[in-house]
Specification:
Blueprint (H helix, E strand, L loop, with lengths): L12 E3 L12 E8 L4 E8 L4 E6 L2 H12 L1
Parallel strand pairs: 1-4
Antiparallel strand pairs: 2-3, 3-4
């Protein structure tokens, strides 16, 4: 990081699924991440509006689609 830049961290509370989220107008970020312990790809949905996070395994159908895209 350059001079004058700061990084902040915040604590997120994990919920079982995105359907448990209750804000009226959520602000979200969604990333596909590799879980290092299990060695599998998952979707991580961060609800910035209330500091909640849900992690869901990538379905086999989604995984197959991404393999086809990479091979093309």
């Amino acid at each position: 990081m350059g001079e004058g830049q700061t990084t902040s961290m915040r604590e997120l509370i994990q919920i079982e699924s995105p359907s448990e989220h209750g804000c009226e107008q959520p602000t979200i970020e969604r990333w596909q991440v590799l879980e290092p312990i299990h060695g599998r790809w998952s979707w991580m949905t961060v609800f910035n509006c209330c500091d909640r996070v849900a992690i869901e395994a990538v379905s086999e159908e989604e995984r197959d689609k991404s393999r086809i895209k990479r091979a093309a």
